[in-house]
Structures are given as C-alpha cells and as structure tokens.
Amino acid sequence: MSENSISSGSSRLYGCGLNANHFVAKTQLNSGRRFYKCPRFDEASSCGLWEWRDEEMPPHVTMLIHNLNTSLKSVEVEKNYLKKMVANLEVVVSAERLKTEKIMEEVEGINSAKLQKVARMEAQLQNMKLFIVFSWISEYFECWSAELAFEWCDRIADLAAECHDWMDELAAEWCDWIAELAAECHDWMVELDAEWCDWIVGLVL
C-alpha cells in the first residue's frame, strides 16, 4: 500500500533489525492516520513491514483532516508567496532608500550652494548699503564744506573791508595826533629855548 506521508519522531524495532519509523498519511482517504513502515520498504532487502498505527477514522473526520491539510498547504503557499513579495519589497525599498539618500545628498549640496550664494548676495547688498551711506555722507560734507567755504570767504572779505576802513580811520587819527604832538613839541622847544637863553644870560651877567 502506497501512501503520501511524513516521518515523525517515534520508531519501532522490527524483524530486519532496523527501527521502523512511523509516518502520517496525507491521502484524502487516510489523511492524518499514522502508520509504520520499514526504512528499506522500497528496496529488495526490505522486510516488507507496513502497518497502521492508528485505527481507521470515520470518513467525515478523515475528510475534515484532509481539508485542514489542504487549507494548511494553501496557507503555506500563500505564506511563501508573501515572504517572496516581502523580500522583493525589501529589495525595492532598499533601492528606493539609496535613491532617496542620493537625492537628499544632492538636495543638501544644492541647498548648501544656495545658502552660500544667498550669503554672498547678502554681503554684497550690505556693502552696497554701506557704499550708498558713505557716498551720501561724503556728498553732504562736500556740499557743507563748499557752503562753509563760501560763507567764510564772504565773512573774511567783509572783515578785510572793515579792517581796511578801520585802518584808514586809525591812520587818519594817528596822523592828526602826531601833527598835534609835533606842534606842541615845537612850541615847548621854543619856550624851552627862550627860558634857557634867559637863564644863560642871567648866569653871564
């Protein structure tokens, strides 16, 4: 009798001297039923041992076990399919992760370059602002200096004119005073000469 089967851990020693392991049938009629068979059952030297370990089960129980085994196989197939899908997804996810990391590196490089460009532009803008401010201050001081110089030129010219008039007046006053002093000195010398002449004549006489 040939049965689809799986081996279990239990064994039994038979006439050939070998342990006859028991198996579990997977056929529709005897699904889940255990049996023993010689390890050399398919060889010429086999003792031919093959016997059921379990009693025959009712048909509905056998059918239920068969259906459960069939469902289990379907679940195993689906599980293997899902494992394969997960493995494929892991490969895809890994590839996408590498792409994402590469894109992030490129984006970071672009952002770094943009930040550097923005920093340079801000520095240039600041320099332009300073240049405009200094230009305005310089222009303001130039205008203020020109106005101040013009104003001081006018003041100096006025002062020179006033000094010229004052010097003319002072010179005229000094000329009059010197003329008066010279006249007084002349009169005083004439008087002094007359007195000295009288005093000398008195001494002689």
Strand content: 5-15%
Largest β sheet strand count, sense and barrel closure: 4 strands, antiparallel
- In which order are the strands of the major sheet placed? 1-2-3-4
Helix content: over 70%
Q: Figure out the total of helices.
A: 1
Q: Structural class from helices and strands?
A: alpha+beta
> Using only CA atoms, what is the Rg?
69 Å
Outline, from the CA principal axes?
A: rod-shaped
Sketch the topology as an H/E string, one letter per element. Answer: EEEEH
For the termini, the CA-CA separation is 206 Å
Quick one: how many beta strands? Answer: 4
Low-confidence stretches: none
Average of pLDDT: 72
Organism: Nicotiana attenuata (Coyote tobacco)
Keywords: Metal-binding, Zinc, Zinc-finger
InterPro entries: Znf_GRF
Protein name: GRF-type domain-containing protein
Write a structural description.
With 205 residues, the chain is of the alpha+beta class. It has a domain at 12-56. The protein is 71% helix and 11% strand. The chain contains one helix and four strands, in the order E-E-E-E-H. The protein has one helix spanning 59-204, and strands spanning 5-13, 19-25, 34-37, 50-52. The protein has a four-stranded antiparallel sheet with strand order 1-2-3-4, with no helix packed on it. The longest helix is centred in the middle third of the chain and has 146 residues, at 59-204.
SSE topology sketch:
Layout: E1 5-13, E2 19-25, E3 34-37, E4 50-52, H1 59-204
Antiparallel strand pairs: 1-2, 2-3, 3-4
Domain GRF-type: 14-56
GO molecular function, one term: zinc ion binding
Protein name: GRF-type domain-containing protein
